Amino acid sequence: MRAKPLHLLLTLALWLVLTLVLLSAVFALALPLLDEQLLTSWQVQQAETSRASINLTGSETNLRLQIAKGELLLETSAFSLALSRALTILLLGGMVGAIIYFLRQLVADVTCGRPFSRRSASALQKAGYLLVTLPVVLYLEVFARFYLFIPGASQNSEFNFSHIRLLTGNGNDLLIYPGFNAGLLLAGCFVLVMANAFNIGAELQTDSDEII
Prior knowledge:
Layout: H1 3-33, E1 38-46, E2 63-68, E3 71-76, H2 79-111, H3 118-149, E4 157-159, E5 164-166, E6 174-176, H4 182-211
Antiparallel strand pairs: 1-3, 1-6, 2-3, 4-5, 5-6
Helix pairs in contact: 1-2, 2-3, 3-4
Protein name: DUF2975 domain-containing protein
Pfam families: DUF2975
Keywords: Membrane, Transmembrane, Transmembrane helix
């Protein structure tokens, strides 16, 4: 694909991502104000028995927990939880938007015929760091969302770095395993290597310009 159409495509993608992020955040905030339930879920495994009832101490009246097809589903109309969901959407969406923005800068330099520049190398480096950070944030977000959304989470669970054990009080403990996207981590490492290569190319380009 030529550089100009790719630059246009990335521009459209950036605006689309930003629009969807803002609309999603507003939608999350609007649900409790409209007296609608906010839904969130975690992938779970049953630790012991096959019973599906959940009895947690300290559960709020405006919150409902249930298990369906290996998922722990939570419905709530609490505004504080809607606010945390909106902030999470803005954080993750902002990171994705920033990655697209930096890649767009790189393509703009390619379009101008100067791909090996300090700006291109810096843009690639920033995109690489964001790609490396994104799977870590997604991993930790599962823990943060659990302890923010589940009432009395610290009393009703056992924390492990690899998973959370939800103590239901009826012998039907649940294990929550946050997924880790190794593909994003590898992509980030690759982009950082490319950023180093572009940085070397920028130095060679500067030396060449000085000679000329």
